[in-house]
Amino acid sequence: MTRSLNHSILDTIGNTPLVQLRRVVPKDCARILVKVEGRNPTGSMKDRMAQAMIEAAERDGRLKRGDTVVEYTGGSTGASLALICAAKGYRLRLFSSDAFSEEKLVQMAAFGADLTIIRSEEGRITKSLIESMIAAAKEASGEPATFWTDQLNNVDMIAGYRPMGQEIWNQAKGRVDAFVQAIGTSASLQGVAAVLRQNNPNVRTIAVEPSESAVLSGGPTGAHKIDGIGIGYIPPLWDPDIVDEVISVSTADANAMALRLTEEEGLFAGTSSGANVVAAIRVGRRLGPDRTVTTLLVDSGLKYLATYGRMLAARISRHPNEC
Description:
alpha/beta, Rossmann fold
């Protein structure tokens, strides 16, 4: 089918494929459907929320032509904001860290963002690191003609994810029994779950977090290596009343599933996507083969090439140079 002309790159955000997993799913498991959000322009679902935050601020006058946008980010939000700001003509200042993938940092800079890197503790994602990033962005937001998107506290994001909920419902033809999503800000889980439950109040909602920092489950804060989730404390937008269950997944299990998705399903995604699928399969085995569990492949594996390189180093043989 021939696609119509898009007047802007922003018109290409959303309407991503929903794909059924085949080979990584055990026989006694429910049908597992994944939303392939790597098909968005920057390769991440965060394009949806970045557009929602910027356009809401434009509508109510918080953001004006000539202003500078400021944010703290683990990478994907920053790249998405950089895309939106490039398309709309805003300057963007971002505060991130070496704890996150090098590819994400490069992508932010490539879209024109002014990027400041805050050092981490041995490349680990911790509560203190997130707090340092937020503090730097808050300080920068005090400058004149500046708009701070402040993603952890910005409810405009939630509306940006509601269309994804309707896309999932339509693509699954109304066969959705559970929705599984890893928690960063918690906006994506809230936006999608609200729409799914409008269509069917019995849809179960399951949150996913790193087992090394399982604060939503009442555990202690800790360090982990799953980009984009697990900030080390309860996110300000977290609403436990909409969640039926919280599942914790280790960094090792998330990485292993991300590799399996690539090798066995041909779906190249990041580590938080691996965590989502691990949790979705756990839920699916409890529900049984006549049910459907949906989850998100939140971004593309192209954002994690160095991470994949380290995991796959033993498989890459190098021919000796001949003189």
